[in-house]
């Protein structure tokens, strides 16, 4: 997908007359991780949001049409509020899946040689600490911070 010579993204860029991008260079590694994460997450998120749209009754839109509501008002007064539970689930699962992108970050940053990201440092810290029987304060602090942010996000989504 990100190969400079025959990757799909660069073939798309060639359609518009743009030069190929070397995605696995250090100055493009963040963009490469973002593109790979979006490519991985969009289909799943669309299925959840589409199922949320399928649960909205057509009777509500029919009633709104009787009261001469335009499309913009129907979206903000019917679709958006009733899609909120599916949106919150999508955001929560997207957050969890983004935390699980260690393999994407590891591959991209190890190829570029720019492996100083929080994810790779935490992973390296965990293995180094485990092998040398050192105190685990740094890794524990990151783990508890991550769990706290997941808990806060879950509680916020349940209140909505």
Describe the structure.
The protein is an all-alpha fold and 160 residues long. Helices cover 75% and strands 0% of the residues.
Concise overview:
By secondary structure, the chain is mostly helical.
Which helices and strands appear, and what pairs or packs with what?
Elements: H1 8-15, H2 29-54, H3 58-66, H4 71-82, H5 84-99, H6 102-112, H7 118-132, H8 137-159
Helix pairs in contact: 2-5, 2-6, 5-8
Name some characteristics of this structure.
160 residues; mainly alpha; 75% helix
Rg, Å, rounded? 22 Å
Helical fraction equals over 70%
Largest sheet properties: none
| Number of strand segments | 0
| Mean model confidence by pLDDT | 77
Provide the structure class: mainly alpha
């Amino acid at each position: 997908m990100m190969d400079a010579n025959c990757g799909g993204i660069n073939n798309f860029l060639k359609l518009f007359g743009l030069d190929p991008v070397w995605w696995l260079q250090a100055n493009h590694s963040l963009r490469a991780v973002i593109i790979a994460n979006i490519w991985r997450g969009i289909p799943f998120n669309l299925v959840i949001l589409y199922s949320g749209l399928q649960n909205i009754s057509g009777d509500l839109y029919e009633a709104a049409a009787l009261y001469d509501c335009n499309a913009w008002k129907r979206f903000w007064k019917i679709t958006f509020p009733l899609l909120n539970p599916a949106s919150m689930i999508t955001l929560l699962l997207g957050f969890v899946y983004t935390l699980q992108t260690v393999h994407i970050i590891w591959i991209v940053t190890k190829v570029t040689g720019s492996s100083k990201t929080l994810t790779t440092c935490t992973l390296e810290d965990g293995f180094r600490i485990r092998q040398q029987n050192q105190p685990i304060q740094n890794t524990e602090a990151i783990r508890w911070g991550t769990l706290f942010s997941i808990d806060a996000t879950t509680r916020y989504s349940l209140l909505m």
